[in-house]
Amino acid sequence: MRRSCSYSEVESGLWYAFVAKLPMRNRNSPTSTKFSERVTGDGPPEDALGPGAIILRGFAASEETELLSALQHVAARAPFRHMVTPGGFRMSVAMTNCGSLGWVTDRTGYRYAAADPESGLPWPPMPESFLRLATGAAARGGFNGYVPDVCLVNRYEPGAKLSLHQDKDEQDFTQPIVSVSLGIPAVFLFGGLSRADNTQRIRLEHGDVIVWGGPARLRYHGILPLKEGHHPLMGRRRINLTFRKAA
Ligand SMILES: O=C(O)CCC(=O)C(=O)O
Ligand SMILES: [Mn+2]
Question: Which of 78, 183, 200, 240 could lock onto 234 through a cystine, CB 3.0 to 4.6 A?
Fold first, then answer.
């Protein structure tokens, strides 16, 4: 059990203290629009990802203040940590979870756990704002009534990456994945159902949401090493909220 204040706790405290000092009008990015699509970056338009997958450009941007404040509470209870893969590699992405289950990895494998292995306590509950966002985005992707039980929170700093993988530790593949990007941009690799399939490269910016399910549910995906950048709210960070229905 870890009791001392970790680097990431100190870091996230500074970050949120900074956000809290911003006047409300400066907290939204200049390009944010309320739950509408915004075509940004070099990525394809909404319909270009293939059956079962959709990009909602800027969908989360107008909710950024609420999302970041909720995230602060989550990270205070379940601090970000770098987990270890079954092969013994420390992940470059720092992670935490909220919801009734959380995704974890260690030398014994990948799994969902009801308690945070660092503290032995249940993961923090899923904030209302998270749930609303995930359910709304899923509905826009054609998945009505989506109720995720996990939000895996990924924190990237420049250089961090996520190798090509499938999300396949869940019980029910009829339920989609909803993935929200906040902070500095990233390049999302979106492949096929086999690891060797070609990958599309999609630039994801602050507020962009991707939903994939149905025939796309098991498509390989990953994140290229993050380039240096600076976001007015988040500094040199990217946060990804990955919503899943695991049980
Ligand atoms: O950071 C991202 O955009 C993707 C995260 C992801 O694929 C995962 O956590 O499984
Ligand atoms: Mn994934």
Answer: 183
- Give the distance (Å) from ligand 1 centre to CA of residue 26: 28
Mutate to test the pocket of ligand 1, among 240, 241, 243, 245 (most ligand atoms within 8 A of CB): 240
Q: Is 59 in the pocket of ligand 1 (CB under 6 A)?
A: no
Ligand nearest to the backbone CA of 161? 1
φ, ψ of residue 77 to 5 degrees: the values are -90, -35
pTM: 0.84
Chain centroid, CA 79 distance in Å: 15
Beta carbon of 162 within 6 Å of any ligand 1 atom: yes
Return the ligand number nearest the Cα of 91: 1
Ligand 1 touching residue 219 (CB < 6 A): no
- pLDDT tens for each residue of 180-234: 999 999 999 999 999 999 999 999 999 999 999 999 999 999 999 999 999 999 9
CA 240–ligand 1 middle distance (angstroms): 7
**Cα gap 100→122, rounded to integer Å:** 7
In DSSP notation, 83-107 reads -B-TTSPBPSSEEEEEES-EEEEET
Tens digits of residue pLDDT in 33-57: 333 333 334 444 455 799 999 999 9
CB 29 within 8 A of CB 207: yes
Ligand 1 probe mutation, 82, 91, 179, most atoms within 8 A of CB: 179
The correct CATH number of 7-244 out of 1.20.120.140, 2.40.10.170, 3.90.550.10, 2.60.120.590 is: 2.60.120.590
